[in-house]
Amino acid sequence: MAERTDIHGLHVAGALYAFVRDEALPGTGIEEDAFWAGAAALIEDFSPRVRELLDVRDRIQEQIDEFHRSTGAGGVDQDAYEAFLRSIGYLVDEPEDFSISTDRVDPEIATISGPQLVVPLLNARFAANAANARWGSLYDAFYGTDVINEAEGRERTAGYNPVRGQAVVARARQVLDESVPLARGSHAQVTAYRIEAGTLVAETADGATGLADPEQLAGFRGDGAAPEAILLTHHGLHLEIQIDRGHPIGSGDPAGVKDVVLEAALTTIMDLEDSVAAVDAEDKVSGYRNWLQLMQGTLTAEVSKGGRTYSRSLNADRVYTAPDGTDLTLPGRSLLLIRQVGHLMTSDAVLDAAGNPVPEEILDALFTGLGSVHDLRGPRAGGNSRAGSVYIVKPKMHGPQEVAVACALLAGAESVLGLEPLTLKIGIMDEERRTSANLKACIWEARERVVFINTGFLDRTGDEIHTSMLAGPMVRKADMRSTSWIKAYEESNVDIGLECGFRGRAQIGKGMWAAPDNLADMLEQKIAHPLAGANCAWVPSPTAATLHAIHYHQVDVDARQAELGAGRRSTLRQLLTLPLGNPAEWDDEARRNELDNNIQSTLGYVVRWVSAGVGCSKVPDIEGTPLMEDRATCRISSQHVSNWLLHGIITRAQVEDALRRMAAVVDEQNASDLTYVPMAPSFDSEAFLAARDLVLDGASQPSGYTEPILHRHRAAQKQADVLVRSAS
Ligand SMILES: CC(=O)SCCNC(=O)CCNC(=O)[C@H](O)C(C)(C)COP(=O)(O)OP(=O)(O)OC[C@H]1O[C@@H](n2cnc3c(N)ncnc32)[C@H](O)[C@@H]1OP(=O)(O)O
Ligand SMILES: O=CC(=O)O
Ligand SMILES: [Mg+2]
Fold this sequence. Notes:
Blueprint lengths: L3 E4 L2 E4 H11 L7 H40 L6 H10 L19 H4 L5 E5 L3 H8 L3 E3 H6 L18 H18 L10 E7 L2 E6 L2 E3 L7 E7 L2 E9 L2 E7 L13 E7 L3 E5 L9 H16 L3 E6 L2 E6 L4 E4 L5 E4 L4 E5 L6 E6 L5 E3 H17 L13 E5 L5 H18 L6 E7 L2 H4 L2 H7 L4 E6 L1 H11 L16 H16 L7 E4 L8 H7 L2 H4 L4 E4 L2 H13 L2 H8 L7 H4 L12 H25 L4 E4 L5 E4 L1 H16 L5 H18 L16 H11 L10 H21 L1
The structure holds acetyl coenzyme *A (ACO), the ligand O=CC(=O)O and magnesium ion (MG).
Organism: Sinomonas puerhi
EC number: 2.3.3.9
Subcellular location: Cytoplasm
């Protein structure tokens, strides 16, 4: 067993103890002994409270299972079902109307609408990139993706393709014309931009013109007569026209424009949850260290590409001259939130006095909280939150009681860290069915510190399947999108958020675009999120953030929220309508396709999780479309297989056969990775066994979560890797 330090009754893994002593505590003004005394008290107080929440989950699930067993598969009497859910405390009474009172919230969360990037925190290279994704090149986003199609000579070639480049420039000018139009003509006709007497002058062949709304000029860089950059603003977001007549692109542009840069990932969630594989103290410390360094502004990462290696560091603020001649400074980095783990898992990074692993969420609250102290006081304060808050995203909570305990834990962490009460804010992931069905009561519990609600529709779909596992076979995975519950869920999340006073105070967020390479489709479809009244929505990459930013220029979310805030569009009855399918509609081929697809995504994800510790991957689906897979998508796929197996839509032999066939497919997909260990033909690797457990034992997993099985097999794999290394 790894070396541990005993302190205040806790047994702390050596790596964590040293990290706290040598890196996290210095500069915070917190005494080491006082910190561990506080940590021990918090753990003692909250461990049984968390355990109790998990017992309630188990009890409720058993009661729901029994209800479906007794009523039989094939649909429920909705009146009886809802009365039953109320009788077991699954549904609680809604509180009277109220408004949240959260204060000290940065404008990126309270008032400005824009993309929200998510990134696995254990990957420092991606994390630094994400923090810097506040500003993104529109030219790069158009040029490098399928948004500009590859027809008519516009292919993405090895070198620069000027025909594609022209299409990019034309498309970027359209964005300018839509967001910051000129009084006359188009940005495409401009031959020179300059600043005169605090206003923008745009020269065209037809003479000079200016902005249709001169107030949209926010600043410039360089000499006003020949500026390097012009800063414009629209819907609270900035756009920068960059000019350089000596640049390869600018030299061919009539106005010398070399790029259009958009304010893109306004906020970023540094994820310690579903996109990471963190199973021991070593993994947890690397996440805590990255967060600490983000809060200190010192995170760097080595980047090697194109034969070049360099160090990526965090961007500085951007400095401009305002139209009135004063200095204007804008944040260079995204406002960072931290997603901690939910109530379920424990971690042996710290053992309590009885030698038991402690709830992992308590460690996350303490050790990311400690990192955040560097952003709240001392020489580096305000590098992230200028309002003096810490933004915690809390996933996978089931109902108001769980939200209340999460908030109490944050209050306890504030006291250990010597923070002003209500510094640690909470974002409530609305991603479990009991939370959706009681959302107003959940918000009530967090009313003083809530900064967002977000429809995590992926976990939510997994919970939809698991909660009603015994009710009957679920519709096919792709058909979930058109079911009654999901429409009601998305609508009521926005409506309840507005009803509770989120407008102008907090985020109402929408879920992930999970096809990271299909960005033309994203540009067409994800406008639905701001149109639905969401002031942020998740994107998987900085490039996707830049493209999604366009939607917030096209839609005035604040005005949209004002229109929508007139009541609820859907009912609890719709939300609680089970997505049961009709087996008569599924012939053998449909069943096999559904099974193969789910097994392939499960294996494709799990193999990298267990063998390589990669918590989020791009995995091709059965049609070859690369999809973002994380623990939530894995929860859906594995639960779907378990559900169909339970109801005899597929047999165990078919599942075993699919596992073997798809393992060979996944091996083939990873063939170019020299470190990859194939699953076929032995089918006995930890990764293969984990995937098999997930689908065969899915019905009995707590809430259908994948963590217990993934952690077990990853820990075994890590141990095996150590043995191999020490033997060689
Ligand atoms: C249901 C939920 O919980 S959703 C939330 C969890 N999901 C996520 O957080 C998704 C985050 N996204 C990712 O992890 C990745 O984009 C993946 C796994 C989907 C794809 O990764 P890859 O296949 O490596 O991407 P790809 O090769 O296209 O791009 C890699 C480049 O993009 C950058 N990049 C990709 N995603 C991100 C990101 N989320 N943040 C910052 N940079 C990113 C990388 O830094 C890299 O650039 P670099 O070489 O300059 O460092
Ligand atoms: O966390 C997000 C989800 O969709 O699940
Ligand atoms: Mg989730």
